[in-house]
Amino acid sequence: MEKADTAKKYLLVCMLWIACIAQLNAQDSAAVQKDKHLKISCYAEIYYIYDFANPADHNRQDFVYAFNRHNEVNLNIGFVQAEYENNRIRGKFALMAGTYANANLAAEPGVLKNIFEANAGVKLAAQKNLWLDAGVFASHLGFEGAIGADCWTMTRSLVAEGAPYYLSGAKITYTSDNGQWLLGGLVLNGWQRIQRVPGNQTPAFGHQINYMPNEKITIGSSSFIGSDTPDSARLMRYFHSLYGQFQLTPALGLIAGLDIGAQQQRPSSRQMHVWYSPIAIVRLKPVASDWSVAARAEYYADPNEVIVATGSPNGFQTFGYSVNIDRRLGNNLLWRTELRTFQSRRDAIFTDRDNRPATGNWFIGSSLALSF
Predict the structure, then answer these.
(1) CB of 160 closer than 8 Å to CB of 142
(2) pLDDT tens-digit profile of 9-54?
(3) Mean pLDDT of 285-294
(4) Rounded to whole angstroms, how far apart are CA atoms 121 and 86?
């Protein structure tokens, strides 16, 4: 009964939020009224993955949050989103379900697990593209997000799985008049948190810089500075993500990136545990073709297990390789197939079909991503 009452209260808050947006719009001048835009969209990502380790409980590795179920047809993520923007205000509200939500938001209480985005923003300058947004929003870190159809590969890379998919707090962003620069600063509730860690009263901070000199090049730099522990045992975390996306020819594209992080070994210590992850993805997408092929090579080194816990002597030090073939079936449907492997550099952190320790893992999968 208590959970049902909480859900009702939450839905009431959402309805009030939408009503506030509508009321603000109703108060706009006739000139602004012409520019109002309300968009309702839906997205669903159905998948099947066969993990050759054949886990009995159907759960794949603990460090995998997207496409994490073995040998079953399932929903990775599905959401319905309302998005509103005019010359003064904007907002997004999206509710989701799926195995991604179950795994990635496991630490969030109650119905907060079903929030994909919930934010509102106001434009701060009439003649400049300067916005202040607050709420729950997609992470500014890295080049991959939770929506698979926006990524070059079917499954998410280790750099994405090892960094926040979502954040909550407030952010200010500025986009230059020519669209070449995006600058942002953030104040956050923590490392992938809607609700703060108990005992943590310390805000986290971040920055975002995107440079797009033309349609062929994007350079992105983003960071996080904060703590994901109670203040009584505060361990400061410093994280930076750098990537470049290049369209080398009309058909050939390249993404290269490097994530690096450091966290205090002990409270007030100057000694740090460091982890890092380089990645490269190459995609061949012939012009006017519905087919594309992508190959990925990556490495994630977290020997002190700040992000990925293995319980092994040398921690998580893993190479990853994948190849996927995509076909677009019309404007709204994307069919993808991917073969991927993880190879531990040192310890046997995986298991084989007989549940024995192994240094490698292989899987193959396919997905259908529908958007409208």
Answers:
(1) yes
(2) 444 444 444 444 444 444 444 444 444 689 999 999 999 999 999 9
(3) 96
(4) 11
CB 324 within 8 A of CB 341: no
Tell me the pLDDT band of 111, cut-offs 50, 70 and 90. confident
Distances in whole angstroms, Cα of residue 172 to Cα of each of 82, 120, 182, 186, 334 = 21, 12, 11, 7, 34
Percent of the chain with pLDDT over 70: 90
Closest CA to 122 of 114, 131, 113: 131
pTM above 0.85, yes or no: yes
Phi, psi of 12 (to 5 degrees): -65, -40
Question: How far are the Cα atoms of 123, 317, 343 from residue 299, in angstroms, in the given order?
Answer: 40, 7, 9
What is the three-state SS of the chain?
Answer: CHHHHHHHHHHHHHHHHHHHHHHHHHCCCHHHHCCCEEEEEEEEEEEEEEECCCCCCCECCCCCCCCCECCCEEEEEEEEEEEEECCCEEEEEEEEECHHHHHHCCCCCHHHHHEEEEEEEEECCCCCEEEEEEEEEECCCCCCCCCHHHCCCCCCCHHHHCCCCEEEEEEEEEECCCCCEEEEEEEECCCCCCCCCCCCCCCEEEEEEEEEEECCEEEEEEEEEEECCCHHHCCEEEEEEEEEEEECCCCEEEEEEEEEEEEECCCCCCCEEEEEEEEEEEEECCCCCCEEEEEEEEEEEECCCCCCCCCCCCCEEEEEEEEEEEEECCCCEEEEEEEEEEEECCCCCEECCCCCEECEEEEEEEEEEEEC
For residues 114-129, average pLDDT: 96
Confidence of residue 85 (pLDDT cuts 50, 70, 90): very high
